[in-house]
Amino acid sequence: MLVSGFVASPSSTKLNRSGSFLWFGTFSRLRKLADHLSTFSRMPSAQDPFYVVKEEIQESIDKLQSSFHHWERIPANTGEQIHLSKELLASCGSIDWQVDELDKTIAVAARDPALYGIDEAELEKRRRWTSNARTQVSTVKKVLTRGKEQQDEELDELSASVQRIGGVGLTIHEELLQQEKIIDELGMEMDSTSNRLDFVQCNV
């Protein structure tokens, strides 16, 4: 759904299990920023809707990094780490979406900076901030994705090992059956030979 130039993300109204990230407030700020973008003039940073949203997104990034550092201390491939990995990846996606929406407001202002009371230096400053925010999130996402790929590889190796062990077990079973058959045949031959010897001895 398009609202005031923003695409409403389903994740924007969800709170994760740990309660670390609540996106609805930031989404409301983004919507407010879009609604007022065409009317606000130059104002102190503390009152500028852009900086209000920026602070909330930065707070989300700080919480993301804090949770990520906790994730790094958790033993690999445990249930807790896997669960936290999913939460962190979801948080990365939500923050990326918020930064994208903030970038849209920068693009709108860039069409006519004078109308919005913003000069080129301020626009560049805002672009640098959103770029840096993306870099911070991307760094976390890359580590999480690499860890997930490694986990998938380990599971594949484990599955292959189980299959190999199963194949070895089947081969051993077949060899045992073959040896049992040979032993049975040898036993029958010995019985036959013993019977012939008994017959010969009886006729001597």
TrEMBL record:
SUPFAM superfamilies: SNARE fusion complex, t-snare proteins
This protein's record includes keyword Aminoacyl-tRNA synthetase: no
UniProt superkingdom: Eukaryota
Lineage per the UniProt record: Eukaryota, Viridiplantae, Streptophyta, Embryophyta, Tracheophyta
InterPro entries reported for this sequence: SNARE (IPR010989), Syntaxin-6/10/61_N (IPR015260), Syntaxin/epimorphin_CS (IPR006012), T_SNARE_dom (IPR000727)
Protein name stated in the entry: t-SNARE coiled-coil homology domain-containing protein
Organism per entry: Cannabis sativa (Hemp)
Pfam families: STX6_10_61_N
UniProt signal peptide: none
